[in-house]
Write a structure and sequence with these properties.
Layout: E1 2-3, H1 5-9, H2 18-29, E2 35-37, H3 42-52, E3 57-60, E4 65-68, E5 73-77, H4 82-95, E6 100-104, E7 109-111, E8 126-128, E9 141-145, H5 151-162, E10 167-169, E11 176-180, H6 186-197, E12 205-208, H7 214-219, E13 222-225, H8 231-236, E14 239-240, H9 248-257
Parallel strand pairs: 1-2, 1-12, 2-3, 7-8, 12-13, 13-14
Antiparallel strand pairs: 3-4, 4-5, 6-7, 6-9, 9-11, 10-11
Length: 258
């Protein structure tokens, strides 16, 4: 079973309910492997896994990282090449004037002065730099902030500007775009993990709510869009469940596992 976190497994307040925790436990006891497939970095995905009682492997940073919870190790990392990251940033600055940049490294976040967004529970891992490209750390995900555009508007402009030189998506955060290396997606990482496990796509049940989840839901034998999902997700996905605030993931797991 593969599930996104924010807007999917977690409520709108960022918590996991007892009902969902119990449904995950039943699924594990029935033999299901539960894999978080998230835009979050390992450090915050690990916290949620502890609350949910989930062990094993997590797909993080939109597929750029595969992380082992037991060993606290990144077992697969697909960062942006430095030259490619610089080129993409130049193209984005021309298409979306006034943007700010940050970079997720897998262990922390590098933030340039113009990137003013901060996540309260992750403040200890933010490090201010003059340039994310001169810090000498890998960029597993380039974060782009605009104070004047929505994420959907940014996505349209970025796709046209980048022309396939990087993977562009967003996870619903206002004014924030997420850039990965070409071909790096949540679905690609899940496919890799399934091949490692000898699991066929049709055996996978998946849940998601944002554009970065569309390919995951298409890959899975049964992919469920949350009732609160982005309109692109709803348009692309046949199966539905209740919203994240109505324990939509748990509702499906209870039908599958009792």
């Amino acid at each position: 079973m593969a599930t996104d976190l924010d807007g999917t497994l977690l409520t709108s307040t960022g918590t996991i309910t007892p009902r969902t925790t119990n449904a995950l436990r039943r699924a594990r006891e029935a033999g299901a492997e539960i894999v978080f497939v998230t835009a979050r970095p390992p450090r915050t995905a690990r916290t949620i896994a502890g609350l949910a009682g989930v062990t094993g492997t997590v797909i993080c940073s939109n597929g750029a990282i595969v992380y082992d919870l037991a060993t606290d190790e990144i077992i697969r990392s697909l960062p942006l090449e430095p030259a490619a990251a610089r080129k993409v940033a130049t193209l984005l600055a021309a298409a979306l004037p006034g943007i700010g940049l940050a970079a997720e490294t897998g262990r922390n976040v590098l933030t340039e002065p113009a990137y003013t967004r901060r996540v309260t529970h992750d403040l200890a891992y933010h490090r201010e730099v003059s340039s994310v490209f001169e810090a000498g750390e890998p960029i597993v995900k380039l974060l782009v902030l605009s104070k004047t555009h929505t994420a959907d508007e940014m996505y349209t402009a970025a796709v046209a500007a980048i022309e396939g030189q990087a993977e562009v998506t967003h996870s619903g955060v206002t004014g924030v775009l997420e850039i990965s290396a070409p071909g790096v997606t949540k679905a690609g990482a899940l496919d890799w993990l399934c091949q490692e496990r000898g699991i066929a796509p049709e055996e996978v049940v998946a849940f998601g709510d944002m554009p970065n989840d569309v390919a995951v839901l298409a890959f899975a034998g049964r992919g469920y869009a949350m009732a609160n999902a982005h309109h692109l997700v709803l348009a692309a996905t046949e199966h539905r469940t209740l919203s994240n605030d109505e324990d939509g993931v748990a509702a499906v797991l209870e039908r599958l596992y009792g």
